[in-house]
Design goal:
The complex is a heterodimer. Chain A has 14 helices and eleven strands. By secondary structure, chain A is α/β, with parallel strands linked by helices. Chain A has a nine-stranded mixed sheet with strand order 3-2-4-7-1-8-11-10-9, sandwiched between helices. In chain A, strands 5-6 form a two-stranded antiparallel ribbon. Chain B is mainly beta. In chain B, about 5% of the residues lie in helices and about 40% in strands. The longest helix of chain B has 5 residues, at about 10-15. The two termini of chain B are about 30 Å apart. Classes of the chains: A alpha/beta, B mainly beta.
Chain lengths: ~375, ~130
């Protein structure tokens, strides 16, 4: 028995939209319900990541209660999942909820208004600027002045380059390739071609990562409807079955102590995924891989077994992951070009591919998608299958 | 400046060892496992008998990044963050800013020695190249 994604919706994404978070959420929710052929009265569950949080400006302005109020929902089950297996945790938890009968149709959402917050002078995704004392894993990084994930990803990339001879040009191929996809995605925020010269002209952020290796803060919302197997059969769109989910985590909750920093939690979650399905890496038609920073893409490729450890640079250089490639990754442009919906946007795009409605970027006959979200110790993976 | 850590019984030796010029890492007294970030229990053998010990304060750069972005208003850039394998504490890395060196001169495998910068009641480690 599998749970299914039966609807998916994005709001109109943008930079500095100055639009209320709830306006984005409501737009995405209406689009997702329309796709599933459901009405508000069919929705009996609600789930999000991480829940309302004011810790990082615009990172999660809406919680389940506010969404319940605004959409006039009557729910039988709800949860916010701040510490689950990566940003896709609410989809995984919703799958468990519908399979255990707690709900029939769960609306899963993620809303961000980081671009508007940043424009208002409150920098997004920087930790430890509040002056108050901190605890937990983040406190060790912030005390070292490593206040941005760009630093943590940067030192991973340095080690990876050192061990395997990857260069910035390989990461440039990730960035320019995803931009080439974004030109065919009307919702992507970056829709001008990006050349390798443009990539190298971007200023350095945290070596070896430059401006175009970093994803783009935006305003927007993403909604999925996760449905019970029998309920899914009544929906308008073909069910996208959550074939398997990998959630293992073998090392500490840190960004610097993992014995091999050319691997991530992604490797644990991906190994776990393949234990839960008969499909193999070569069955995958399309991928959504977390690209908060470009370096995560090759690491996720290796984690999922698309190529061997240290081989991602050649795999990328051979053109496998870009437009026309054998294993297209982040076909909507990803977070690097479409905008940072914190993993949800990547999953949305793989759903469009499986439904065959990805327009000019459609991967012919895509039936099986792999999603991997998270960087560092944060990781979750999922296979989505269309019959 | 970036936020300081809350001092707790398990992390106080690490954050205050600099007052005596010592880099202090927590070890398990039962199985000798080096525990970092420090815990009140040994994650390897679950013994409650853990203790902070001074290590030599030297190590080898495992990886690094040169930060060019002023994330916070008073942050001076560029500076290098080094992730250092610590001598005398197998498996433990201490990540800290590099001082007394050209930010672009730091490399993997480079030998480093620790010093400390006091801020309120916390002594923050910083690495500089062994000369």
């Amino acid at each position: 028995m599998k749970a299914a994604i039966t609807g998916a919706g994005l709001s109109d994404l943008g930079r500095n939209t100055q639009r209320p978070a709830m306006a984005h959420l409501a737009e995405a929710a209406k689009r997702a319900m329309a796709m599933a052929g459901l009405t508000r009265d069919d929705i009996d569950g609600l789930c999000t990541y991480p829940g309302r949080s004011d810790a990082s400006p615009g990172n999660s302005p809406l919680g389940t209660g506010e969404v319940r109020n605004a959409l006039g929902l009557k729910t039988r089950w709800h949860a916010a999942i701040p510490e689950g297996p990566s940003q896709m945790a609410p989809i995984m938890v919703a799958a468990m909820a519908v399979l255990t009968g707690q709900a029939r149709h769960v609306l899963c959402f993620r809303t961000l208004t980081e671009s508007s917050s940043q424009t208002a002078g409150r920098r997004a995704s920087v930790s430890g600027s509040g002056g108050e004392r901190m605890g937990g894993w983040l406190s060790w990084l912030v005390a070292a002045q490593a206040v941005s994930a760009a630093n943590w990803a940067g030192w991973m990339a340095t080690r990876y380059f050192h061990e395997f001879g990857m260069t910035r040009e390989h990461l440039g191929m990730v960035a320019t390739g995803q931009r080439a996809f974004a030109l065919h995605n009307p919702l992507a925020v970056m829709r001008k071609p990006l050349t390798m010269d443009d990539y190298f002209a971007g200023r350095m952020i945290s070596s070896p990562l430059g401006l175009f290796d970093c994803d783009i803060p935006i305003d927007g919302a993403s909604v999925f409807i996760v449905s019970a197997p029998d309920a899914a059969m009544d929906c308008a769109a073909p069910p996208l079955w959550s074939e398997a989910r990998g959630t293992a985590l073998d090392s500490q909750e840190t960004w610097d102590q993992r014995a091999d920093l050319t691997t991530m939690g992604s490797h644990d979650a991906a190994a776990d995924l393949w234990l839960r399905t008969d499909f193999k890496p070569h069955d995958i038609d399309v991928l959504g891989l977390y690209d908060g920073f470009s370096i995560f893409v090759p690491i996720w490729l290796e984690a999922l077994g698309l190529c061997g450890h240290g081989e991602a640079k050649d795999f990328i250089a051979e053109g496998n992951i870009g437009p026309g490639g054998r294993c297209p990754v982040n076909t909507g442009g990803g977070q690097l070009s479409a905008g940072r919906l914190h993993g949800f946007g990547l999953i949305h795009e793989t759903c469009l591919q499986l439904w065959g409605c990805a327009d000019g970027r459609q991967v012919e006959g895509a039936k099986l998608a792999a999603c991997g979200t998270g960087g560092g110790f944060i990781a979750g993976s999922m296979l989505l299958r269309r019959d | 400046m970036p936020s300081l850590p809350h001092l707790t019984p398990e992390n106080t030796p690490f954050w205050t060892g600099g007052a005596e010029g010592e880099l202090r890492i927590t070890f398990c007294a039962a199985c000798n496992h080096a525990i970092h970030p420090p815990e009140v229990i040994c994650p390897q053998c679950l013994s409650d008998s853990v203790e902070a010990r001074a290590v030599p304060g030297t190590g080898t750069v495992y990886t690094y990044t040169v930060n060019h972005q002023p994330w916070l208003p008073e942050m001076e850039v560029p500076f290098t963050l080094a992730v250092v394998d610590v001598d005398g504490a197998p498996g433990v890395r201490v990540t800290a800013p590099v001082v007394d060196a050209d930010p672009e001169s730091v490399g993997i495998g480079q030998r480093m020695t620790v010093s400390f910068r006091q801020q309120e009641d916390v002594w923050l480690p910083q690495w500089s190249p062994v000369r």
